[in-house]
Every structure is written in structure tokens, then in C-alpha cells.
Amino acid sequence: MNFSNITWLDDKGHVKPPLMLYLLLVFIARGWCVFVASLTQASDRAALVELFYPQKSDFLMALAAGFGAVIVYAAVIAERKRSPNWVRPLFPYMRWALVLLLIIDGGLLTQRILHSYYMYSWSIGLDALVLFWSSLYLYQSKRLKLYFSDWKENDGKK
Over the stretch 135-145, which tens digit does the pLDDT of each residue have? Predict the structure, then answer.
């Protein structure tokens, strides 16, 4: 079959992961992104981390919450390769794992607001906006629902 006219299917007819899923995972794992970026800075690694996370506890909590996004990303990579097969039964529940991670991220945002004594900052405002839009995306996206239900039992046995 030729799927060249349908851009959201790959050459085998499987649903490709949406770009928004990758952006959502980067948003949830932004603590890990800051950590990796700080490792590339040779002079003062802590300065970059303190720029984004003035409180050390906020950074550590972001790393802990972002670890779930790293696990979901590993499941997405496993789905693209269609192996290992033990990930397949867990894959349809990854959408609910993302919902849980967004709830945890909302709790961390509340903690950051409390640490700033309710002073408005652009980073908190942007985080709240992206959190809101990410929640709407998880709720509304039909393509994401199709993607998480695409890995069937007989796919890995070809």
C-alpha cells in the first residue's frame, strides 16, 4: 500500500508520533534539558541552573518529575522499533502517564509560585500557559489517541 499522501502514517502504515508529543515531553522534562545544557558550560555549571531554578529544591523536583517524561520517551522509541514486546501492553496507558506527569508539573508550578511569594514572573506565566495548552492537547487530540492505540499484539511478529 502507498501511504505517501497521508503524512501522519509511516511507510508501514503505523501512526507516527505527533510532533506535539515530542514538544510535550521536552516541556515536562525541561529540568533534564537545563541539566544537560549546564553540563556543556565549562566555567560555571550552577549559574545556568540557578537562572531557571533559583531554589535548589525546585530543580530537584523538576528532575524527579521529568524522569517520567524520559520513561515515556523511551516507550515512544520502543514503539517506533516495535521492540521489546514487554513494553507493548503498557503503551496504551502512556497517555494517562502523561496526564499524571502534567498533574505533577502543576503541583511543582504551585510550589514555585509559593516560593516566589505570589510574585508574577514571566517564566511562571509561560509555564502555566504551556501546562494549560498541553492539558487541552492531551484531552482533545485524536491523533494522539490513535497513536497510543496503534501498537497491536501482532505488529512485532512480522
Answer: 999 999 888 88
